[in-house]
Q: What sequence folds into this?
């Protein structure tokens, strides 16, 4: 098999001085699909659409800003020297954990203010969020970022990857581990799992879909993060791995605690 080693153009469309990048298209598409599916589930659970649209219209930009701020903070030595690039989100450089922290805090506040069941809203959002994460990783693919250590062409061939993925994994003169793909597949598998849980009545209690999402994502992220070469660092430690450990065991502990301490906890079936 012959590889021409021509990387894909990260710019999808040029409109005069404006450039529409594939990175943005993947992120925007993931968000739109997530919103559609979340609203569909909210209607099924007979929640106010107007209130949820207000939540979404605020939560999305807050999550994006939080994701960028998180990334910039942990890359501050660079951005202190290049302040004009702080807002250049179209070139990549957002951290999903930043989005989850910022968006999650806002959603908690919003639910408290409007009298919404916090666990119910988090359960609705969780499957679509992890699906969006899986789609969004392909934006990293187009930007040739979030890749792993050097590897060989034969290794990538043995994974039975399409030619275009192998080509795009040729970065700075070396083939790279497609960690974006590993995480994308893990996230999409998590989406399937959470959707099965959603439709398994009387097996799970309120909040457990969300907490399972936290456990599933943090478990996979811990390992994929360990393979990456562009991790945000705190001294010698990878920040995302530290967070993954805390989130995984925190969510697991919360499930156990809620099951044992609150015997009156409502089951997932919100229709009853």
A:
């Amino acid at each position: 098999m012959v590889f021409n080693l021509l990387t894909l153009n990260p710019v999808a469309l040029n409109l005069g001085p404006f450039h529409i990048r594939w990175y943005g298209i993947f992120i925007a598409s993931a968000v739109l699909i997530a919103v559609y599916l979340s609203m569909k589930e909210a209607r099924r659970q007979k929640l106010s659409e107007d209130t949820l649209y207000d939540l979404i219209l605020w939560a999305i930009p807050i999550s994006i800003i939080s994701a960028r701020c998180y990334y910039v903070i942990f890359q501050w030595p660079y951005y202190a020297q290049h302040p004009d690039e702080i807002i250049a989100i179209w070139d990549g450089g957002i951290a999903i954990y930043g989005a989850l922290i910022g968006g999650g805090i806002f959603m908690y506040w919003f639910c408290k203010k409007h009298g919404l069941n916090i666990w119910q809203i988090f359960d609705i959002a969780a499957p679509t969020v992890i699906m969006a994460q899986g789609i969004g990783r392909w934006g990293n693919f187009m930007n040739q970022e979030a890749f792993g250590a050097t590897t060989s062409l034969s290794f990538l061939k043995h994974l039975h990857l399409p030619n275009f993925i192998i080509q795009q994994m040729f970065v700075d003169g070396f083939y790279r581990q497609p960690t974006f793909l590993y995480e994308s597949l893990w996230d999409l598998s998590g989406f399937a799992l959470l959707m099965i849980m959603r439709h398994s009545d009387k097996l799970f209690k309120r909040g457990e879909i969300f907490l399972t999402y936290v456990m599933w994502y943090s478990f996979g992220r811990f390992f994929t993060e360990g393979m990456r070469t562009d991790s945000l660092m705190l001294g010698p430690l990878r920040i995302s791995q530290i967070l993954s450990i805390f989130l995984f065991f925190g969510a697991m502990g919360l499930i156990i605690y809620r099951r044992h301490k609150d015997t009156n906890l409502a089951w997932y079936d919100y229709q009853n």
Remarks:
- The longest strand covers residues 11-15.
